Amino acid sequence: MSGWDPRPWNETEPSTGDLMWYSRTPQDVATFVGDAISWVQANPTFRVEPAPTPPVVLIEAWNEFGEGSYILPTVGYGASYGNALAAMLTGP
Fold it and tell me: How far apart are CA 49 and CA 45, in angstroms?
């Protein structure tokens, strides 16, 4: 969800042999999390607890810097991933 960089492990895509790289922007991550929340709200049988308890959505690998899967602040992106998530969660 938040990205994958296989370069540290020199992994390739099995069927093509290409070096894989999935890029994402802070807005991509925020949109994906927003879509996950909307899905949980639209499918109440999959909720951990019934409404009005907020839905639970897990963001896995939020700090996997070696794999390119992170939302923590970095030198290159600052807090842009966290800011995008905060803006999506608090809304206009």
Answer: 9
